[in-house]
Design a protein that fits this description.
Blueprint lengths: L3 H10 L5 H9 L4 H6 L2 H5 L6 H6 L6 H12 L3 E4 L7 H4 L7 E6 L9 E5 L6 H16 L3 E4 L5 H11 L4 E4 L13 H10 L1 E4 L11 H11 L3 E4 L7 H11 L3 E4 L7 H11 L3 E2 L3 H8 L35 E4 L17 E4 L22 H8 L10 H9 L8 H5 L5 H13 L3 E4 L3 E4 L2
Parallel strand pairs: 3-4, 3-7, 4-5, 5-6, 7-8, 8-9
Antiparallel strand pairs: 1-2, 2-6, 10-11, 12-13
Helix pairs in contact: 1-6, 8-9, 8-14, 9-10, 11-12, 16-18
Length: 444
C-alpha cells in the first residue's frame, strides 16, 4: 500500500465518478505513489486518459494533501484509500470506484454484511414517511445495515428508523465530511457519526452542489446488496440511485403507491420494469435470509408481518365546524414494538347523537361547575415520560383542543424534518393521530 498522501493527491486532481482515474490506477498496479511519480508521456500512453487529465496530474505539489491529512487528524476523520485492505470490495469492483473515502464513526466489514439502500424523494408524504420509517426500523432490527444519503425527506426518516432500532446506518454525503447538508440535519449527522457511519468521497470543505449528489448515489447503491425506492417521482434522484443499482447488478425493490400520484410514478414504473414489490421489511429480508443466515434475524420482528400503511378506500369525510373526532377501530392491532397493523378510523362529530332542542319559550339553564371541575380544567397536562427531546418539543407545541399541520408546527421554530420524524414516532406511540388533510391531533 502506497503512502496515503498520494491517494489524497490523486483524489484532489481527478473528478469523482470518473472511469479514467480507475483505468489509471489499474495501469500503475494499484499504486498511487507510482502514479504520482509518472510523467505526462506515461499518462498519455494509457488508453482512455485525456490530455487534460494528464496535464493536471503533472501538478506534483503535495501541500494541499498534507493540509487535509492534518485536518483529518485534528478532527478525528478517518481516511480509506482504494488500496487499503478494509476498502469494500463491493465498491472496488465498480468501474468508477472512489479513489479515497473520508468517514466518521465505525466502518463495518461491509462485504460480509447485508446492507440495503433506502432512498426516496425529499417531498415526503405521510404515506412515504410512515412506511420508510417502519421498513427501515424493521430492517435494522433484523440485522440489516441501512444505507441512505441523509437528505431531507425519505433519507432522514429511514436513518431515524434504523437509529431507533439501535441498528447500524450509513449516511453517504454529497459534500465534505465537515459540511452539514441540509443544515437541519446537524443533530442527525452527529448521531449517525456516533452510532453508525458518515462517509464521503469529497474532500473536507467541499460544499454541496447539484453535480455532487448524482455521483454520490453510485456509492449508496454500490455499498448495498439492494436498493429500496420508498417514494419517488420519475425524475427523482432516487431513480438515479436505482439506475446505478441496475448497472451494478444489484437488487432493486420498490414500494407501490397510488396510481397517478406524483411520488408514486417512479416506484410504480420500477415495479413495471421488474423491480421487486415491497410492502414490508419481510419482503426484503426473505431475499437474503438463506444467503446470510448468521446476519438476518427475522424473529426480531414481532410479529414478522408486512407493515405497509394503506389509506382506507373510502371517500374523504366532509369537514364541519367541530372538526374530526378520532376513534380507534377494534381491528387496530399494535404490537409491543409499536408496529401498526391497521389504521385508526375517524368519524365526524356531526354523526354523534344530537340533544333535543330546548323549548323556545324557556332559556336553557346553565349548570354551574363545581370548583373541583374548574380546577381540573385549568390543571396543566403532564407530558408523557418516554419521549425524546425532539418528540417532547413537537408534542408540547401541539394544541390540546384542535388539530395542526406539520407546516404550522414548523412555523413555531421547529425544523420541518424534525417535525415529520417526531410526528411519525408520536403516532406510532399512539400519542397523536393523523386526520385527513395532513392534520395531526393529540390522542388525549
Amino acid at each position: 500500500m502506497s503512502d496515503i498522501q498520494y491517494s489524497v493527491w490523486l483524489s484532489l486532481l481527478t473528478v469523482p465518478g470518473s472511469k479514467s482515474v480507475c483505468l489509471l490506477i489499474e495501469a500503475f498496479d494499484n499504486d498511487a505513489e507510482k502514479i504520482y511519480q509518472a510523467t505526462e508521456e506515461e499518462y498519455l500512453a494509457i488508453k482512455g486518459i485525456s490530455p487534460a487529465l494528464a496535464k493536471s496530474l503533472c501538478d506534483k505539489n503535495l501541500k494541499k494533501a498534507l493540509n487535509i491529512l492534518k485536518f483529518c487528524q485534528k478532527h478525528h476523520v478517518s481516511l480509506l484509500p482504494f488500496d487499503h485492505p478494509s476498502y469494500p470490495k463491493r465498491l472496488r469492483r465498480l468501474p468508477d470506484f472512489p479513489v479515497l473515502l473520508y468517514y466518521r464513526g465505525r466502518l463495518p466489514d461491509i462485504d460480509n454484511e447485508v446492507a440495503i439502500a433506502t432512498v426516496g424523494t425529499r417531498k415526503i408524504t405521510e404515506y412515504g414517511q410512515q412506511n420508510g420509517y417502519v421498513i427501515s426500523r424493521d430492517l435494522a432490527r433484523s440485522g440489516v445495515i441501512v444505507v441512505s444519503g441523509m437528505a431531507s425527506g425519505i433519507d432522514s426518516v429511514c436513518h431515524r428508523g434504523a437509529l431507533d432500532a439501535l441498528g447500524h446506518t450509513i449516511a453517504v454525503l454529497g459534500c465534505g465530511i465537515d459540511v452539514v447538508y441540509p443544515k437541519q440535519n446537524a443533530d442527525l449527522m452527529e448521531e449517525i457519526a456516533s452510532k453508525g457511519t458518515v462517509i464521503t468521497e469529497y474532500a473536507p470543505g467541499t460544499p454541496p452542489s447539484g453535480y455532487n449528489f448524482p455521483k454520490r448515489n453510485r456509492i449508496i447503491s454500490g455499498l448495498s446488496l439492494g436498493t429500496l425506492v420508498v417514494e419517488a417521482d420519475v425524475k427523482s434522484g432516487a431513480m438515479i440511485t436505482a439506475n446505478y443499482a441496475k448497472e451494478q447488478g444489484r437488487d432493486i425493490f420498490a414500494m407501490p403507491g397510488n396510481v397517478g400520484e406524483m411520488n408514486s410514478l417512479g416506484t410504480n414504473h420500477l415495479i413495471k420494469q421488474g423491480a421487486r414489490m415491497v410492502t414490508g421489511a419481510l419482503d426484503i429480508l426473505k431475499e437474503y435470509e438463506l444467503l446470510f443466515p448468521q446476519k438476518i434475524h427475522i424473529n426480531r420482528i414481532n410479529p414478522p408481518i408486512t407493515t405497509m400503511f394503506v389509506e382506507n378506500p373510502r371517500p374523504a369525510p366532509r369537514r364541519n365546524k367541530k372538526g374530526y373526532t378520532p376513534i380507534i377501530d377494534d381491528r387496530t392491532n399494535v404490537d409491543e414494538h409499536g408496529i401498526s397493523v391497521a389504521r385508526p378510523l375517524y368519524s365526524l362529530s356531526e354523526f354523534t347523537p344530537k340533544k333535543k332542542p330546548e323549548p323556545k319559550d324557556t332559556a336553557p339553564v346553565k349548570k354551574k361547575e363545581s370548583k373541583k371541575v374548574q380546577k381540573e380544567k385549568t390543571k396543566p397536562q403532564a407530558l408523557p415520560t418516554n419521549l425524546t427531546e425532539e418528540e417532547t418539543k413537537v408534542f408540547s407545541a401541539m394544541p390540546n383542543d384542535h388539530g395542526i399541520t406539520p407546516d404550522e408546527l414548523a412555523r413555531k421554530g421547529i425544523p420541518v424534518a424534525q417535525v415529520l420524524v417526531a410526528l411519525t414516532t408520536l403516532e406510532i406511540k399512539k400519542l397523536v393521530v393523523s386526520l385527513p388533510g395532513g392534520i395531526y391531533m393529540k390522542n388525549i
